[in-house]
Amino acid sequence: FNVTTFPNEQKDNVTKWLAEARATAGVDLYPYFAHRCILAQVYPELSSGLATPGLVTPREVFDRLYFIGQSFVSAWAYDTGDGLVVFDSLDNAAEAENILIPNLKALGFAGTDIKHLVITHEHFDHYGGARWLQDNFHPATYASAAAWESLAAVQNGPLKDKTIAEGDELTVGNVTFKFYETPGHTPGTISAVFSVYDNGVEHKAGFFGGVGFPSAAAAKAQQIASLNRFADLGLEAGVDTVIANH
């Protein structure tokens, strides 16, 4: 770390404190460590505009597939004809209550329409609102085994419900979601392939569940392998549309 130039730097201390900050951040908070402890110190103007939460008008992106998130992190809702399947739950209970649910209401839905909730990976900006949604609307909630293992240690985290494994399919109404384990961003990241429609014309969507690069070299290598594998799976499935969760 001491190769980085810092204002009024004390090189003997920079490495020490950055190493301690990185250890404290761990895997879950590594992006915030990199943002606040490295980027913001050297490029404050760039840092101030990076990853800033803000409100986004909810909208129908494909037929019956809706964006209901905010400017930094996504949440998606698919109207399957038999209730909503929601991917991710924003940062916390307050955002679930004050952003996600109002966005659904603006589109003509209610929280009670959420029948299934998929947690793409075990970072708080994706599971943070899940417990509130569980407590208030009781959707079936899905995550990978590795994600559930990590989430078990989270205070007021989502209650363990259903486990998604490699190749599992979830059919709700007239939509089938096929899931794949794609570790790297986190050990429990899952991705999905499913059909979407644009004015009635079918397309195949690939939803990769964790795009940010992890901190550890081994995890980076694992993520590259998962990206390459998911790309191959997408080619086999005829994917022509990419959806992300940020």
UniProtKB/TrEMBL annotation:
Residues of the Metallo-beta-lactamase domain: 72-246
The record ties this protein, via InterPro entries, to: MBL_Glyoxalase_II, Metallo-B-lactamas, RibonucZ/Hydroxyglut_hydro
Short name of one Pfam family:
Lactamase_B
| GO MF term (any one) | hydrolase activity
What domain of life does the UniProt record list for this protein's source?
Answer: Eukaryota
Cofactor dependency: Zn(2+)
What protein am I looking at? Metallo-hydrolase/oxidoreductase
Q: Keyword Lipid biosynthesis, does the record have it?
A: no
Keyword annotations for this protein, in alphabetical order, are:
Hydrolase, Metal-binding, Zinc
